[in-house]
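Handout, page 2. Input:
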Amino acid sequence: MKAKKKVVISTEVRRSKAPKSGKRAFPPVWSEDSGAGRPIGAGRKVETSGDASSRPRVETGSAAVADLGAHVVARPTMSQREALDRVDLSVDIAPQRGLLLLNPILVASGTFGYGVEYGEVVDVQRLGAICCKGTTLRPRAGNPPPRVTETPGGMLNAIGLQNPGVDAVIEKYGPIWQGWQVPVIVNIAGESIEDYVEVARRLDGVPGVAGIELNISCPNVGKGGLQFAIDKDAARAVTAAVRRATELPLLVKLSPNVTDVRPIAKAIEEAGADAICAINTLSGLAVSVDRTRAFLGNTYGGLSGPAIKPVALRIVYEVAQVVSIPIVAIGGVTNLDDVLDFFACGAVAVQVGTALFADPELPVRLGDELRAECLRRGLTSYKPLIGTALPARTGAPSAKGAEYRP
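Output:
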């Protein structure tokens, strides 16, 4: 058996190291308990409800085992593989312009570089899409260190959009992306509407660029540094301006750092966005070991990881009730149950982010596990799993505090 290549990930984590990555056996459509190669549920009715108790819990990360290391009776037969291949995981996340993904598992901006960094570790062609590192009009050196610190259930980062600038990105990575099957969505940022527009114009028509993800959680210099993402008029204006500048599919990333996200999401949809990504990181802070200052060089950082999943679920749930464009969920995805939860709240796809640092193969494995779960439920597509937790009628926003009332 060929030795696995060692992955070295440079971080500035000050506390404990990330857990060692594990691997997962082929998706649990079958089990040794039910007989060699016999599908779970054979000879009995297959449950199609979303009740997690009706299916084997999918383990990921350190609890997982490689398919190659599994006993032969636990591996799928040829007929089972053919059945898995018939499950349709494709999704168009920009129906008006067309951005068809082979599966709904993407990798999030800022956690997967430009895709090439993971090329020898992960089969990138099996991903739904790659959202590349945040790109700006001019090169940025980023924030002073320390930039990253671990937190309970996640991490804080204050990288500061370090990148070589859009022209360098196009020159260096465009030709590589052009040869890939997996779509690459370029995440862009700016300090003014003009910045966003110019970056979008330069990306428009570049071979290998499949779409744009608009990071509007940036300070608007023209409005005293107020983030575009927390003001519906500013969010509308920057989205509309970029929409006029490019015919590329346009995804806009929401900030969770607002009281009520619904008006902002509706403004973004009305301005011409093809899809909404929810959510960006939550603003947070860590203090130094001697408690004499803020730990991060930028003072504040963005909180990500499993700790923010409930917030992300709430925002996806709220936004899905007021917009008709697709929602791509982000925030704390570490296993299949997280994926299914986001689907139930109205998302059509998910992005895996922070978990990649501990387990780079997770997104590919999640695609396999989702396919297996659909087969277990007797589904030929994952689409029936979308929106199952949404109310029949639009509910009150959480900003009114309804969830806290006795």
